Amino acid sequence: MAKELKELTKRSENYSQWYNDLVVKADLAEQSAVRGCMVIKPYGYAIWEKMQHQLDLMFKETGAQNAYFPLLIPKSFLSREAEHVEGFAKECAVVTHYRLRAKDDKSGVEVDPAAKLEEELIIRPTSETIIWNTYKNWINSWRDLPLMCNQWCNVMRWEMRTRPFLRTSEFLWQEGHTAHATREEAEEEARKMLGVYAKFAEEWMAVPVVQGVKSETERFAGALDTYTIEAMMQDGKALQSGTSHFLGQNFAKAFEVTYLNKDNRPEYVWATSWGVSTRLIGALIMTHSDDNGLVLPPRLAPIQVVIVPITKGDDQLKAITEKLTPIINNLRERGISVKYDDADNKRPGFKFADYELKGVPVRLVMGGRDLESGTIEVMRRDTLEKETVSLEGIEEYVENLLVDIQKNIFEKARAWRDKRIYECDNYDEFKSRVKDGGFFLCHWDGTAETEAKIKEETQATIRCVPFGIEQTPGVDMVSGKPAKCRVIIARSY
Length: 493
Prior knowledge:
five-stranded mixed beta sheet; 14 helices; alpha+beta; eleven-stranded mixed beta sheet
């Protein structure tokens, strides 16, 4: 193992530092000169591009179309929806002036007092207000509905404590915004998009998730319901990995967005919004990776197969390259991304460790003896198992191996999570165990007071009322009152 890899903190020693180390050493991202913002490096951005590509296809299959809306939002727009402005007031970055001027001593710059904006502008924390102000010009009759737009963009939320990908002041995301004629259509759309996120998380990211609905306290500002997918990281904490909101008619009323129904009478439209962000890269890291580095699901790995020749002299390298070139071409024709690393600037051992660190799913190695015997060494990143196989049929072998790796890391993550879902109806037991992580299925009386007490005393929150869980009668473990439902409670990122 390369010396550089030994510097990666072990998960068992300091999980948080392990994560930070891995983000940097795997060339995913680094801190920038702007507080709370990160630079996403090419390898990290390549993962985001693959996520974006697949999600974009899935969104378009539902009928959504991509559009783009302004980065700057008039301050008055946010105040039109009371819950919305209250929810984001502390996170907004505000533009107050439109130019600077040099100081007299030329030692710096100062704001030109004459250049103060008539109305302050908010750097978008989310786009509901600017989009609904636009939709009122696009929607006139029932024939204009449903209206379904998505945008890929950046947003700014002035976070006090940041961590790369998981929580940064500026981050990349997509936000979908739809308008519908009826409440039923809008609610169906919100639930459908949650299903799209869950499918992507499990089938592409290999991350098992719990689907559910947020409590009133935890829902999106301005929504009537917020649906969520919750994933469990290796330290047992929850990570909210995607949300879909049923907005009711709140934003339609705030921005006077009406349509003429089939009886030629005006009605307010019904709305949804939904989004995921670069936080998904954090979920990938913390769900699958190990003390050797990243473990990436093949479907999202920028490099799915790396091939490293080990040679003595240019003639042997030429012979190995000639042998491997048709194999590389055949793999690429099957849609598999391949890197052939024949550079002589690094030792093979360093290359092995580096690709292991970066989570490349499959590594193929060919040396002089392999060339003679018609074999190649194969290592799979998820288990670190090696075997020597025949070159004959290697393309199909690798293709099947990638499918197996994708399945294996999902099953491993799901089994790990399922062992850490606990039923709990004793508050003392809960308080003693929650610090060690896990999802706790508990009865809840439905009150904000009980929810606040749990958060204050344990730093855990109600993640959701989960779908697919039998809702049995019971008593709230905190208040002793009859329970309204069973919820998942956990500490979270």
